[in-house]
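Session log. Operator J.P. requested a structure for one protein chain; no other inputs attached. Running the standard single-chain path with token output.
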Amino acid sequence: MTQLPEPTTDLELAKRHLDDYGCCLLKDALGPDEVEALRSRALEQLEAEVQLGVNQVLADKKQLVRFLINKGQVFRDMISHEGLHELVRHVLGREYLLSAFHAHVAHPGTTKAFHTDQFWMPPPTNDRKQTLLKPGSMTRTGNRGHHAGGEELMDPATIAPAVVCNSMWMLDDFTTENGATLIVPGSHLSGRQPDHDLDSNANWVPATAPAGTVVVFEGRVWHSTGVNSTNRTRIGLTANFCAPQFRQQENFLLGTLPEVVEQASPEFLALIGFRAWQGYGGYEGHGQWVARGEYALGELVPGEQ
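Structure written below.
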């Protein structure tokens, strides 16, 4: 397949696109007023962080405004979009966690960086049941193409499932010229990571669409920020989700502001990790929900309580 699917408002069709292409484009996910409110708040936050010296331009000329759940109700409202969650459930199943929520500001001259969002997912064993890459030895740059596992990872007999689902919310029109997200349609079924040497000529297609569109892609899809060849920044918001067995990119248990936790619904608290899953993530006396300022028992001596 050489093209990305057409944007749609039909969630059932979008799910089929996720299966076939590894991605879908949900159009009109945000109205013009929502786009403007989100864009204004993101730029205002970025300017304030730059003034404080707590934000920087990355090596690829992109800036991030991280941890958006702390940085405005408008972001917290967006993350509850039901259409988004129906698509995430299609990829990950009934339960999942918010892993990260950032604003991506692509400045003129941004460069490409091919990757998937579950680079850390160990490949399946080979047909002799041998482990090709040990889980604790995975790195962001090291497990790519022919550089890891040799030919056995180039054409695997079986592949890992998707355990991540990401979304890019377009707050500007995404065009080829301003660095729209690049995706290789169908790459989610390749079973390997993209390699900058091997795969520079793969079928990298820009996800172009009007502001208000969200492109949703599962964790195995090869993608990259495009090159912004205009003289204007291009802004998107990424909301990344992971299956509940996996570590989140952002530590919401520690980093979420107290007032955000206090005002949050049970559904929102579960989404950011305050509810245990299948016995994981809880602690003594808190097997289902965890809470700030409440701890497991410490060292005890009989008769001294």
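Operator note: The chain has a mean pLDDT of 93.
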